[in-house]
# Entry
Amino acid sequence: MEKAFHYKTTITSQHRVFDLHVRETLRYRDLIFLFVKRDFTAKYKQTILGPLWAVIQPLLTTVVFTIIFGRLAKLTTADAPGDLMIPGFLFYMAGNICWGYFSTTINDVSNVFIRNRNIMGKVYFPRLVGPVSSACSNLISFGIQFALMLVILLIYIFTGSAGVRITPMLLLIPLLVLHLMILAIGCGIIVSSVTTKYRDLAMLVSFGLQLWQYGSPVAYGLELVPDQYRGLYLLNPVTPILTAFRYVLFGTGYFGISYYMVSLFVTGVIFLIGLVLFSRIERTFMDTI
Amino acid sequence: MDESMILVDHITKEYILGQIGRTTLRDELQRLGARIRHREDPTQKIGAQQYERGDTFFALDDVSFELKAGERVGIIGRNGAGKSTLLKLISRVTVPSSGMIGLNGRVASMLEIGTGFHPELTGRENIYMNGAILGMRKKEIDEKLEDIIEFSECRQFIDTPVKRYSSGMYVKLAFAVAAHLDSEIMVMDEVLAVGDMAFQKKCLDKMNDVSRSQSRTILYVSHNMNTIRQLCKRCIVLDQGKLIYDGDVEEGIRQYMDAGGMSFDKKMDLISVPRLKGISRRILFVSAEIHRDNNVYTSHEPMDIVFSLKAENVQENVRFMMILFYQDGTRIGKTESGEFTVQPGINMVSVSVPNKGLADGAYYYEISILQRSRSFAREKCDCIPNVIPFVINNTEVFGVKGEMWKSNYWGHIMMDPIQVTSQ
# Structure
């Protein structure tokens, strides 16, 4: 292999496990930006309401949640004992936009090879550009939804109808969103890597996500979970992110630093496993897809 | 000039036949279980042999070559010869099963026109999109945007979504981006097949130009021998995954024609060719001889053939019929000889076939012997399809030297020039 020494790029059948193309992906950030722009333009072109569609869906879901889980089922919306200050509508909306972002991103990322096979079959670019740009595209919808959420929150505060307040902790939101995004990309690329060979898993994704939602505090508060299962429940890496999100947004609720750290650790592990699998599959997926 | 840009070192690409897409997780687990228990693979078809070489298909089989900076190399070969696989490997779309490819620079691959073009985006947005996919930074594209728009001849429509473009405009825009990419290596798969004549010429000129002035290396796959001749200085011929020739363009094209199963021999044995039904066999072709070193003609040169025929008895009112085909099987025309008489035994008949008016391209004949009976019915004594391959290579087209004949637009007959009778 001493011949390889003379060339800047070499292509062989061998693959190093930690050859993850992360730096190369960063070099293609212009492409990520363009993909995001393309997704956005293509999604809303020739629609009348345009990006308004991004808020209609979570808004309707929130109304439904407020009626069914709040009024009819009367599930608690408290994350911490005695904490019932957050109006139901705000509570469900916060959970819905987070979960909406998370599940849409996993879905999009897990289809990344199949959706982009026309391009990826013809030209090389770091394949990780696909998942990253999908996650960033969804971030735009998330941003619009979050802005609406803030407006509603401000209305609640000015009418003085709830005990929520805005604190400087709000500035931590981007970090939480980044955490959620990395977790979603990690899960998504694991699924996408495995589905290039076994299509079975694709069937499981939407179903699995639905189950996962019930196992996360989206439609109910953390207080609903009996104490003896609380520890186990908090090992779900999404749970600490969701409760922390509400905590910093409303200035009240639950935040457990140790469980948050566990979630951070699990996220890191999932992301790394995802990267390793993805970089293995990306080299030859065109032959099997 | 002699810096090595691409090294293809004993590359093999193997595909598993029939397996792809049929594997489910359950099958795989069953197989794993069986392996652990040393049982037979339960997902395997009954009677199928395990790990047979026959289960795999070699799209490329031990191919090696090296390209230096500034070289323009054409790759030719029939469908399925492995051309596209080779380009895919060099473009890093997939990886080889064994061997190594070394690249010294960025690769701009155009395996398809307008990769990543999105119909909803405007021409300008797609320039950025396509450029970024090919590996350009936004800044680079900004700098070259004017040149690209100019070259694409689409300035008027540059802010219109490309879904409203004609296919020609689409191609022009796509090629313009790739041609302005600062890549050291350009890989192209038959992309010039679309677009109008003037633009094709412009593309070829542009490629010649960038290859000379910026010593870019170009790897070009085409079925159009004329563009290969115009663009390339070297030619690689692939056949069934193997490299069968690497060198001079004309020789490469000849090898390619040979690889098509139509070898040119000065003396062609015809008696052993299997015949179709429906012939009387009263007279048979024994052989055909052409006293020439190659089978390349201009359309002004007649083709001289000596046929050797065999008959049992005296046969009268005999004539030859020859049907001309283009290499892709298109019927071009028919010609017949005058009548002659065949004596018992071996007869040598010399003929001169005027291929007047034929345009550039590769052709072959179907030859028959016809006999007119007393009732004036014509009877086929012998017929051999697919013989006498030859190539027409005119040095000029309507008095213009070096002009290419575009058979996909103009057909295969170069008619006599129009006479201007009054002015």
About this structure: Chain A touches chain B through 40 residues (CB under 8 Å).
